[in-house]
Design a protein that fits this description.
Number of helices: 13
Shape: globular
Bound molecules: adenosine-5'-triphosphate, magnesium ion
Helix content: 25-40%
Number of strands: 14
């Protein structure tokens, strides 16, 4: 619980010249109670979160210069109890930074973050014991220990009694289907098996909130879908889940609400259906074939076209056109592309997906790396 009535809090106000009268003490008490109640009512509350890293960048052989990396810029949202909340964004968007702040591994530069009612800056122990977290994937495991020993070791760190540790480890190994290899050292596991074990580690303390940072990274398609099925199952049993991914389809299939972040900015927030509905006025057409950058540029200049992106697909070019018109635009598209030497193999007018929401908001596809920023 956030203890805003704590004497040290009043003290800090006093030191700033705040002199409490009986009246404003009462106001403060009620204000604090309402903040407490609100913070307690949601698993995660993020208010105006800013994270700026200061790093040294080399400049020549012997010189370097300090630069600031703005990883999160005024991000605010809440995660509701019982939902699977997706944090969706490309490389460098700020997903891991946000997760590290939520799990107290990093301090925010500014803003407020409450997890299960606890302040991540002032109540880090309470925050840690109320969150199950998968952050560094396989790097958070001990490779010289077996899978079972890893789980039992982390259970001991969470102060589970010895008998409970064994039970919990066995339950988790069954759930993540690693029983067969549970007694082999982790160094002999494949990277997918290590990822599954790292996911199992997040379940040890049976916390009400699970925070998973790209848990299906390096998993093959069947293993990724198995893991998502386990996440769904845990969610149905009452766990709230925060799930980061850069895969739109994954967020769309799994998450009840999604926040799209890019370059530290929150671009959109809502259910996948709401986000797609927000695009209803825009239409999306995919064109596959041999399409030059010049042809794309001419399409972009058509008055009804809002945006275009060009990427590679199966050895051909995929041109995605966001426009104000649906089928009506096709004759113009075909004419302009034909005039500029394009060879069209397929035209697919589409219902919008989350990927299209991202394209409409940023003008880029998720495939483009946005990691570099100074
Ligand atoms: N320790 C650090 N010091 C300086 N800059 C950092 C640090 N960690 C991350 N950054 C920068 O902050 C930004 C956000 O990085 P972050 O790791 O949060 O992104 P991400 O969305 O998790 O990306 P990815 O999908 O690649 O994991 C990037 O520009 C990154 O270069
Ligand atoms: Mg990351």
């Amino acid at each position: 619980m956030i203890d805003l009535c704590h004497p040290s809090r009043l003290g800090s106000n006093l030191s700033k010249g705040f002199v409490p009268s009986v009246d404003n003490l009462e106001t403060l008490y009620h204000a604090n109670r309402s903040i407490n109640n609100h913070a307690m009512s949601q698993p995660v509350i993020i208010e105006h979160l800013v994270k700026v890293y200061t790093v040294r960048q080399r400049k020549g052989l012997f010189r370097s210069q300090k630069i600031e990396v703005h990883a999160l810029n005024d991000v605010s949202f809440e995660v509701k109890e019982g939902e699977i909340f997706g944090l969706l964004g490309p490389n460098g968007a700020g997903k891991t930074t946000l997760i590290k702040i939520l799990t107290t591994l990093l301090l925010p530069t500014a803003g407020k973050v409450f997890v299960n009612g606890y302040d991540v800056v002032k109540q880090e122990n309470q925050v840690r014991s109320s969150v199950g977290c998968m952050l560094m994937g396989e790097r958070g495991l001990y490779w010289k220990l077996t899978g079972r020993e890893n789980l039992e070791y982390f259970a001991a760190l969470y102060h589970l009694p010895p008998k409970k540790r064994k039970q919990r480890a066995a339950q988790i190994l069954k759930l993540i289907q690693l029983e067969d290899i549970a007694d082999r050292t982790v160094e002999t596991y494949s990277s997918g098996q290590k990822m599954k074990l790292a996911f199992g580690k997040a379940l040890i303390q049976d916390a009400p909130l699970l925070v998973l940072d790209e848990p299906t990274n390096t998993l093959d398609v069947p293993s990724a879908s198995e893991l998502r099925a386990i996440v769904r199952q845990l969610n149905q049993q009452g766990k709230t889940v925060i799930y980061t991914t850069h895969i739109m389809a994954e967020a769309e299939a799994l998450c009840q609400r999604v926040a799209i972040i890019d370059r530290g900015e929150l671009l959109a927030l809502g259910t996948p259906d709401e986000l797609k509905a927000s695009l209803r006025s825009a239409r999306i057409t995919h064109i596959e074939g041999v399409i030059s950058a010049q042809a794309e540029e001419k399409v972009r200049r058509l008055p009804q076209v809002r945006r275009t992106t060009r990427s590679a697909k199966n050895g051909a070019t995929l041109l995605t056109v966001v426009s104000d018109e649906g089928y009506e635009i096709l004759p113009d598209l075909i004419r302009v592309l034909g005039e500029h030497g394009a060879r069209i193999q397929k035209i697919i007018p589409e219902e919008p997906t989350l990927e299209d929401v991202f394209i409409a908001k940023t003008g880029r596809t998720l495939a483009e790396d946005t990691r570099v920023r100074s």
